[in-house]
């Protein structure tokens, strides 16, 4: 019996080994917003709340209304009127924070437009703060009462205070429109409905409508600022 040896008999073919693929590095976590930015955004959201409270505290009208009836409305509840002015001042400070928040949220998509809008809105808040001081003076005149007080306030309405502060408040109107346009351009970062809600809320809360409508307007502004604030924190 012959035995034949075949080459390769009993050998196991080596198994192919795939090259090791290095694991992809994990994406770095987004940095947490700076506490100062959180404070800024929180102040911005407090603005519509303060303005709504101001409307609930005072329904006497606007400083440009007829002097006699407006002063008579202020004299009905001086304490509530003073509180409303304090709350209004808080809202004006918060308005500057809201302007900066809009600029941060829209800075990537509409840097120039949002910056101009923020500057105009801040100027409007300064003008509103000036009118708050005028309302405190009007409260003193309302306490005195009489035709002389009405004549004094009518003279103020025609004088330098209104001529200086009035254009600043008008800047807030232009700034609001520009901010709404900036929000439209930044809708991918914010949300689609923020711009119309912001603009509609501003119109309803202009003080030209009953208190309930004004409060509803501020609620719309607050709702619009929530996604804006989120975008500002992400930025």
Automatic annotation (TrEMBL):
It comes from the Bacteria. Signal peptide: none annotated. The chain crosses the membrane at residues 39-57, 85-106, 118-142, 162-183, 190-207, 213-233. Keywords: Membrane, Transmembrane, Transmembrane helix. This is DUF4386 family protein. It comes from Geodermatophilus normandii.
């Amino acid at each position: 019996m012959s035995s034949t040896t075949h080459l390769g008999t009993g050998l196991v073919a080596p198994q192919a080994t795939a090259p090791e693929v290095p694991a992809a590095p994990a994406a770095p976590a987004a940095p947490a917003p700076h506490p100062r930015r959180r404070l800024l955004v929180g102040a911005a959201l407090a603005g519509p709340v303060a303005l709504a409270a101001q409307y609930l505290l005072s329904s006497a009208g606007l400083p440009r209304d007829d002097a006699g009836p407006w002063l008579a409305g202020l004299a009905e509840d001086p304490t509530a009127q003073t509180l409303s002015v304090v709350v209004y001042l808080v809202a004006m400070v918060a308005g500057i924070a809201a302007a900066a928040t809009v600029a941060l949220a829209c800075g990537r998509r509409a840097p120039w437009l949002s910056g101009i809008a923020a500057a105009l809105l801040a100027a409007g808040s300064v003008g509103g703060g000036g009118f708050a001081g005028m309302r405190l003076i009007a409260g003193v005149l309302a306490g005195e009462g009489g035709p002389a007080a009405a004549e004094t306030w009518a003279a103020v309405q025609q004088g330098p205070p209104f001529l200086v502060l009035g254009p600043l408040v008008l800047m807030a109107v232009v700034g609001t429109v520009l901010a709404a346009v900036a929000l439209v351009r930044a809708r991918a970062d914010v949300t689609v409905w923020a711009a119309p809600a912001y603009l509609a809320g501003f119109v309803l809360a202009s003080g030209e409508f009953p208190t309930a409508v004004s409060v509803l307007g501020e609620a719309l502004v607050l709702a619009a600022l929530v996604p804006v604030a989120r975008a500002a924190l992400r930025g």
